[in-house]
From TrEMBL:
Pfam families: ACT, PALP. Its cofactor is pyridoxal 5'-phosphate. PROSITE patterns: ACT. The keyword Cell wall biogenesis/degradation does not apply. InterPro entries: ACT_dom, ACT_ThrD-II-like, Ser/Thr_Dehydratase, Thr_deHydtase_catblc, TrpB-like_PALP, TrpB-like_PALP_sf. Residues 332-409 form the ACT domain. This is Threonine ammonia-lyase. One of its GO terms (molecular function) is pyridoxal phosphate binding. It comes from Allosphingosinicella flava.
Length: 409
């Protein structure tokens, strides 16, 4: 791959990105790039984490939005379509600069993102189920109201602003020889790839995309795969990548990796447990790529971008509990027993003997194929680890009970 220092056909250059860095300096947080020993041990790579969830609006999108606002001319106001983070970044900095902002968001956008965007003074319009529908409506409103449309990714000023992430990472951790970046429309990875390849031509730049929305992966590989479904990474659920970003990515990005939903959930949970930091699904996708494809970057010095932390609290709770269940620390055990006095006590006593905590008990007599004199109970419980849970189940079977764990996918 040719060095990008001399490329003249890209609409964004290293000089543009460096100018954006000076332009936005002091108005966005220079977030830390920190070595994570535990994530390194888990993945077999030396892993540096860029904590963009520490921005004021909890996402990197502020960088591009502010750079765009500072480089455009007179306007009656700005309008954007966004699943949330671009919306918040644009609304926040537009309010700071005294510019009216209208944001069109897909209807399923997490409530936390809608509320946070609204709190920055923007007018919120909910329209459509996916980004593409919200985008089309925002374009219509821009013409009707004579507003300046600010694209979330397919704009040179946006791309230049996002590229400042790579400048900071390589300044703080110059040994990084591979960058793994979440990809939706491609604005972040486009800017980062231009900056990184110009500063360090041998560096690998790798995209991480949710398996349910492989639009950029298809653009790179020529494959035809659907982009649909409920993904926890709604911030990168883009059906159609940008024209500008696609052209840059085909030239400047080395590979695109797809990540399944389960690994994105695991990544969100591990970041809470290990780094004590909150990542939304899209924000955790770069780390998830290391979990899905450990052989790809084993032994390398890898920089991952934790691009955002705006996750609905209820969804976060669900993800954490599901991960505990998959690890065997939380379980729902279904136990058959005779419906007579003392039967439940004999079961509970075994839980006490094995020192396993009972969280909930569900007793079912009616909706069961068992004989009328029998019943089953579901007991949600928590243990130290899967081995302790297995010992309890063995003890229940030895006592004559039929028991099995209710599986989670």
């Amino acid at each position: 791959m040719a060095s990008l220092v001399s490329r003249q056909d890209f609409p964004v250059s290293l000089a543009d990105i460096e100018a954006a860095a000076k332009r936005i300096e002091g108005a966005v947080v220079r977030t830390p790039t920190l070595l994570s020993k535990t994530l390194s041990d888990l993945t077999g790579a030396t892993v540096y984490v860029k904590f963009e969830n520490l921005q004021f609006t909890a996402a990197y999108k502020e960088r591009g939005a502010l750079n765009k606002l500072l480089t455009m001319g007179e306007t009656r106001g700005v309008i954007a379509a966004s699943a949330g983070n671009h919306a918040q970044g644009l609304a926040y900095h537009a309010k700071r600069l005294g510019i009216p902002a209208t944001i069109v968001m897909p209807k399923p956008t997490p409530t936390v993102k809608v509320m946070q965007t609204e709190s920055h003074g923007a007018e919120i319009v909910l329209h459509g189920e996916l980004f593409d529908e919200a985008y089309a409506h925002a374009r219509t409103l821009a013409e009707e109201r004579c507003l300046t449309f600010v694209h979330p990714f397919d704009d040179p000023a946006i791309i230049a602003g996002q590229g400042t992430v790579a400048l900071e990472m390589l300044a703080d951790a110059p040994d990084i020889d591979a960058l793994v970046v979440p990809v939706g429309g491609g604005g972040l990875i486009s800017g980062m790839a231009i900056a990184a390849k110009a500063l360090k031509p041998g560096i690998d730049v790798i995209g991480a995309q949710a398996e349910l929305y492989p639009s950029m992966y298809c653009a790179m590989t020529g494959k035809d795969m659907p982009s649909a479904g409920d993904t926890i990474a709604e911030g990168i659920a883009v059906k159609k990548p940008g024209a500008i970003t696609s052209a840059i990515i085909r030239e400047a990005v080395d590979e695109m990796l797809l990540v399944p939903e389960r690994d994105i959930e695991t990544a969100v949970s591990l970041l809470v447990q290990i780094e004590k930091t909150v990542a939304e699904g899209a924000g955790a996708t770069s780390f998830a790529a290391l979990l899905t494809h450990p052989e790809r970057l084993k032994g390398r010095t890898v920089g991952i971008v934790l691009s955002g932390g705006n996750i609905d609290p209820r969804l976060l709770a669900t993800v954490l509990l599901r991960d505990l269940a998959r690890s065997g620390r939380l379980a729902r055990l279904r136990i058959e027993l005779q419906d007579r006095p003392g039967a439940l006590f004999s079961v509970i006593r075994l839980f006490e003997q094995h020192q396993i905590n009972i969280v909930e008990v569900y007793h079912q007599r009616i909706f069961t194929p068992l004989p009328a004199k029998d019943t089953f109970i579901d007991i949600e419980c928590e243990a130290r680890d899967a081995a302790q849970m297995e010992k309890l189940m063995a003890g229940l079977r030895e006592a004559g009970f039929h028991v099995h764990a209710v599986k989670i996918q």
